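Data availability excerpt. The first of two example chains:
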Amino acid sequence: MNIGQLEKELDKLGIPKNYYSINGCLVADTYMLNLIYSMWEYFYFDEKGNQEGYKRFIDEEVASKYLLEKLKKEIKYPVSDFK
């Protein structure tokens, strides 16, 4: 799965675009996936500006699948349910 396929799958699942950012700007309460040079980095950017769950990936496919699984869990059990 590449980033284009990931975005199509997220749309198909109805995951709101404000839940994630792929190669975009830092936005609070957002799952981030960014290509930095040749590495993909993932983290959750919380409302206080903290990076949580930081991970780096060499492979776009692995990074894409990781974000997809995180977002599927978020939709099933939204963070807002625990606040």
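And the second chain:
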Amino acid sequence: MTQANELMGVVRADGSLELAGKLTLPAGRVRVRVESVEGPPSETIGDFLDRTHGELVAAGHEFMTDEEVAAWVRDQRGEDDSDRIEEAYRRLEEANRKGEDPC
């Protein structure tokens, strides 16, 4: 007599299969059939961010500390954009005088 279980699962990027529960079949040989299904994501955005952060750390990626981020933000806010804006206007006017497309 053939017994069957149907479970949901996730195929991971490395090709492994994670089942959403335990099988209730006796130990022994089985036939596995995997079908993709439409439906809600297998993980929340928070779970995704936690997982990818962990994978990046494991791969050796170094993230900025809170202090480094705060210093970077202060530095960005302290920039005077007037020079860059004036340069953009100068290039636009020059292109217009020459009859060129400024973009």
